[in-house]
């Protein structure tokens, strides 16, 4: 079977598992061929389908996320290595970077803090956006920090990025121009897609019965982490705007919202 035929058959099988079956099939095939998806589509469709494709497809049919199978996920202007044990970067989170870019305009942050950095998603995207900045990433997961450090090294950003094991902003004694944060915000009893529920780390997803526990921890100490005129960009879940905004407003923050590409309020911009 040729690659193009194998892709068609795989996409049909994946239709019951994924909202993007053809894309998933192409990414898995590119992985099996050891090439990029663009090269696959331009010049490899008439190659024989590799034997390695079948096992990759079986993993996806078992609801394993494509990013864990391929080990890579694109985000903003960078590609990140990911693995089980870290939250997979999502396009929705790019809203935080967009909000920060809009805020700084022609200026630029010099010091950036990423609370709950995971594989370095927001921190490394921000450093790629602002080449003169340096950043600190905090996470409670040793596994996530190891992947973040490896990503920084691979992207040539390790000289400007530092990572620390920690509990949100506790123990951080400096102030930053920009604080980025994508905390867990899913309600404990929420029904999630199996590829999320069964594969991604619960600690990066769930935050108490109402999904607000992490915000309650973060809000009281966030103000001391910002320089005068600094901004924090915090991700929220769909429908959480009023509740989360109230938590930060109670700490003296001025709150503005930014919507993602689907029109959902995805980020809160916080200023003292």
Can you describe what's shown?
This protein is α/β, with parallel strands linked by helices. It folds into two domains: 3-62, Helicase, Ruva Protein, domain 3, CATH 1.10.8; 73-271, Vaccinia Virus protein VP39 (Rossmann fold). 38% of the residues lie in helices and 19% in strands. It has helices at residues 3-14, 21-33, 37-43, 53-61, 66-70, 94-104, 121-129, 142-154, 194-197, 213-222, 241-249; strands at 72-75, 78-81, 111-115, 134-139, 161-165, 176-181, 226-235, 254-259, 265-271. Strands 5-4-3-6-7-9-8 form a seven-stranded mixed beta sheet, sandwiched between helices. The model has no long low-confidence stretch (mean pLDDT 97).
Topology:
Elements: H1 3-14, H2 21-33, H3 37-43, H4 53-61, H5 66-70, E1 72-75, E2 78-81, H6 94-104, E3 111-115, H7 121-129, E4 134-139, H8 142-154, E5 161-165, E6 176-181, H9 194-197, H10 213-222, E7 226-235, H11 241-249, E8 254-259, E9 265-271
Parallel strand pairs: 3-4, 3-6, 4-5, 6-7
Antiparallel strand pairs: 1-2, 7-9, 8-9
Helix pairs in contact: 1-2, 2-3, 2-4
Search tags:
alpha/beta; Helicase, Ruva Protein, domain 3; 2 domains; seven-stranded mixed beta sheet
Brief characterization of the structure:
With 272 residues, the chain is an alpha/beta fold.
């Amino acid at each position: 079977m040729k690659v193009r035929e194998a892709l068609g058959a795989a996409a049909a099988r994946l239709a019951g598992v994924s909202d993007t079956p053809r894309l998933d099939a192409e990414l898995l095939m590119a992985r099996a061929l050891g090439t990029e998806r663009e090269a696959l589509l331009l010049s490899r469709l008439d190659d024989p389908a590799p034997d390695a494709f079948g096992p990759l497809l079986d993993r996806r049919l078992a609801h394993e996320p494509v990013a864990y199978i391929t080990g890579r996920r694109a985000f903003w202007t960078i590609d990140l290595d990911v693995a089980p044990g870290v939250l997979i970067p999502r396009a929705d989170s790019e809203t935080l970077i967009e909000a920060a870019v809009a805020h700084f305009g022609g200026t630029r942050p010099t010091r950036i803090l990423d609370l709950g950095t995971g594989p370095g998603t927001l921190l490394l995207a921000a450093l790629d956006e602002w080449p003169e900045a340096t950043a600190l990433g905090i996470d409670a997961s040793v596994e996530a920090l190891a992947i973040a450090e490896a990503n920084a090294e691979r992207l040539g950003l390790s000289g400007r990025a530092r990572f620390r094991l920690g509990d949100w902003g506790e123990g951080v004694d400096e102030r930053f121009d920009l604080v980025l944060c994508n905390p867990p915000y899913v309600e404990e009893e929420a029904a999630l897609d199996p590829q999320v529920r069964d594969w991604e780390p619960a600690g990066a997803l769930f935050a108490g019965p109402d999904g607000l526990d992490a915000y309650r921890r973060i809000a009281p100490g966030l103000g001391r982490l910002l320089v005068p005129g600094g901004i924090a960009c915090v991700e929220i879940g769909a429908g959480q705007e009023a509740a989360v905004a109230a938590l930060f407003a109670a700490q003296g923050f001025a709150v503005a919202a930014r919507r993602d590409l689907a029109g959902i309020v995805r980020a809160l911009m916080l200023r003292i």
